[in-house]
Amino acid sequence: MATRICFIRHGETDWNVDKRIQGHIDIPLNETGRSQAVAMAFNAGHHSFSAIYSSDLIRAFETAQVLAKRESVPVTKLPQLRERHYGFFEGQVKDDLHQHPEAYAKYKARDLEYDFETGETIPALAARVDDAVHQMVSHHDGETIAAVTHAGVLDILYRRATGRPLHTPRDFTIPNCALNWFVFDNHGPGGKGWHVEAWDDHHHLKQVIKDSVE
Predict the structure, then answer these.
(1) Residues 36, 153, 110, 21: what is their CA dihedral angle, to the nearest 10 degrees?
(2) Is 83 assigned a catalytic role?
(3) What integer pLDDT is reported at residue 191 of this predicted model?
(4) Which of 83, 100, 107, 158 is 20 to 30 A from residue 92's alpha carbon, by CA?
């Protein structure tokens, strides 16, 4: 049976506003992010979720808790849903990354072998995203669930479901607190049984949505 998962990027943080790379650094939601989470939960309330999962980073968990309160479903932390580890780039403002020209060039080129010295490669991120999906689907066959995560994870999910390579430039948006629906069954790109049912549903965020970095 098919499992439907609504993947949701966490709400905005002050570091998103500053365009500062967060990665694994644990930054809470700001006021706008909390408003986004409430708006998201109101929209998602039109659906019924058997379970709610979240990255263990506070910005995702806070977002998930708002949805959980509306749904009366507990949040299960799943560390595999964490953002990519950006190594020594974490904590730096995106506009200043060119001060590290070699690393910045690899970052912009989506070099599949580059791990920011102490961070994570794109294939390593993709492997744990695959593992997260496997865990959720295996425990919720035929159910509809929600998972709150990060832009880097959603980037991988979208590419997996649409057959896009991991190394090509991102040509799709990933707003905070938009609803992104995926179906997992025995059919789909590459035999993985992944496909996108609906992407970037953010009509509930017209007054609070902002674009931001990972």
Answers:
(1) 50
(2) yes
(3) 44
(4) 158
> Are 212 and 22 contacting, i.e. CB atoms less than 8 angstroms apart?
no
pLDDT for res 186: 62
Q: What is the fold of 3-205?
A: Rossmann fold (3.40.50)
Tokens of 207: 């007054």
Q: Which of 71, 83, 90, 120 is catalytic?
A: 83
Number of residues that this document lists for the chain? 214
Residues 158 and 126 sit within 8 Å (Cβ to Cβ):
no
71 is catalytic: no
Matching residue, tokens 């799709």: 172
Rounded-to-integer distance, Cα 74 and Cα 65, Å: 8
Domain ranges for the chain, please list them. 3-205
Sites in the chain below the pLDDT cut of 50: 187-191, 209-212
pLDDT of residue 206: 61
